[in-house]
Design a protein that fits this description.
Shape: elongated
Strand content: 15-25%
Helix content: 40-55%
Largest sheet: 5 strands, mixed
C-alpha cells in the first residue's frame, strides 16, 4: 500500500509542475480574452495534458531514486542518486494523502449541504427544468447539474434573468467542468495553480452564462444592476455555479466588451502547449552523478585480450623500454610475439620488421 501512495504522490508532483506551467501562460496571455468557448476548451485541455504528461513521465522515465551501479563503460560511471531520501519521501507521501483526504471530505460535505438544502425547498417547473425555491432570502441563486436554486424573493422579482443565467450553466454542462476541476484540487491540493485555474474556469463559466442570459433579450443595464445586488448575497459551495461568483468587475467589463482583435490572437493559444513542452524537457532530464574512472589497460597476447594490472611491470618493445601508458599505441597487427619472464616483472614485445 505504501508504494502505491508514493507512486500517486510522484504523479501528483509531476501533474502540479505541468499544471502550473500551463496555467501561468494561460492566465497571463489568455484569461482576459472574450472568446469564452475557446478559453474553456483551453482550460480543459490543460487539465488533460497535465495528467497525461505526468503519467507519461512516470511510466517512461527512470525514477529519481533508482540507482545504477554497473561497472565502468568507456571510463564513465553514471549513477542515479535520490533527490530526497526514501524516509522523507514516505513522510511527504502520507502528508499529501492526508491533505487529499481532507479536501475530498470537504467536497463530500458540500454535496451533502446541497442535498439537504434541496429537501427544504419548494419545487416548480419551467421549460422542463425543476426550480427549487428556498425560504432563505439571503441565499444567492446557483445551479447544480440540472437543478436551479433561488430564494423566494428572487423567484418573485428577478426570475427571468436568474433563470436564463442558470439555464446557460446547465446547457453548457458547467457542473461537469467544475467536478473535473475539483478532482484536480483534491489531487494537487498543495499547488496554488490547482485552485487558481479552477477559479479561472468558473469565471469563464460565468461569462458564458452572462452571454446566454443577455442573448435571450434581458436588458443589459438591469442585468448589471442585478449582478451588483447579488454580489453581497451568501454564496453556496464552490462545487456549484453561483450567480454571485467573484470578479464582478471583470464580468461587467466582459459584458460590455466588443472584440476588435485580429485573428492573429489565436496564435496565443499555442503558448500553453509551448509551456507543456518546456515542462517535459525539464522533467525528462534525470538527475545524474557522473565520475570519470581510468580504464584498465589491455595486454594483447596472440590476438587475445586480457585485463591485467601493469603496475611495477617493465615493458620492452624490440629491446627498448616503453612507458606502460603507451602500450595502447602499439597496433596488434604489428606484434609478432610476446614473452613474460617467470617473475612477471618484465614483458618483451617483438614486432614484425
Amino acid at each position: 500500500m505504501s508504494i502505491y501512495i508514493t507512486h500517486l504522490f510522484q504523479i501528483s508532483i509531476a501533474t502540479s509542475i505541468l499544471l502550473f506551467l500551463m496555467w501561468s501562460v494561460y492566465h497571463i496571455a489568455l484569461s482576459t480574452e472574450n472568446k469564452f468557448t475557446l478559453n474553456r476548451i483551453t482550460v480543459i485541455a490543460i487539465y488533460g495534458l497535465s495528467i497525461a504528461g505526468a503519467l507519461f513521465l512516470f511510466l517512461n522515465l527512470v525514477p529519481a531514486d533508482y540507482t545504477v551501479q554497473n561497472g565502468p563503460t568507456h571510463g564513465l560511471v553514471v549513477k542515479y542518486t535520490p533527490v530526497i531520501s526514501q524516509s522523507l519521501k514516505k513522510i511527504l507521501s502520507y502528508v499529501w494523502l492526508a491533505g487529499a483526504v481532507s479536501v475530498l471530505l470537504s467536497t463530500v460535505v458540500e454535496i451533502f449541504r446541497v442535498n439537504r438544502l434541496l429537501k427544504k425547498c419548494d419545487r416548480t417547473q419551467r421549460d422542463g427544468f425543476t426550480i427549487f425555491i428556498s425560504p432563505d432570502r439571503r441565499l444567492s441563486p446557483f445551479s447544480f447539474w440540472n437543478k436551479i436554486i433561488m430564494n423566494r424573493n428572487d423567484f418573485e422579482e428577478n426570475f427571468d434573468p436568474i433563470f436564463f443565467h442558470e439555464h446557460g450553466h446547465i446547457l453548457n454542462r458547467h457542473t461537469t467542468d467544475t467536478v473535473i476541476a475539483q478532482l484536480f484540487v483534491i489531487f494537487c491540493w498543495y499547488n496554488p495553480a490547482a485552485w487558481l485555474i479552477r477559479s479561472d474556469l468558473k469565471s469563464v463559466h460565468e461569462y458564458q452564462a452572462d452571454c446566454h442570459a443577455l442573448n435571450t433579450g434581458i436588458n443589459i443595464r438591469q442585468y448589471q444592476l442585478l449582478l451588483l445586488e447579488k454580489a453581497i448575497g451568501s454564496k453556496f459551495p464552490s462545487i456549484c455555479n453561483n450567480l454571485n461568483h467573484s470578479k464582478l468587475e471583470k464580468r461587467i467589463v466582459m459584458i460590455n466588451r466588443t472584440d476588435s482583435r485580429s485573428s492573429l490572437y489565436r496564435l496565443r493559444y499555442l503558448l500553453p502547449m509551448a509551456a507543456l513542452c518546456f515542462g517535459f524537457m525539464i522533467m525528462s532530464t534525470p538527475t545524474l552523478k557522473a565520475m570519470i574512472t581510468p580504464e584498465k589497460e589491455l595486454v594483447t597476447v596472440h590476438g587475445r585480450s586480457n585485463k591485467s594490472s601493469l603496475d611495477g611491470v617493465s615493458i620492452y618493445v624490440d629491446g627498448k623500454l616503453l612507458p606502460s601508458q603507451k602500450i595502447n599505441d602499439i597496433s596488434p597487427n604489428t606484434i609478432e610475439a610476446i614473452s613474460v619472464d617467470k617473475n612477471k616483472s618484465r614483458i618483451d614485445i617483438t614486432t614484425k620488421q
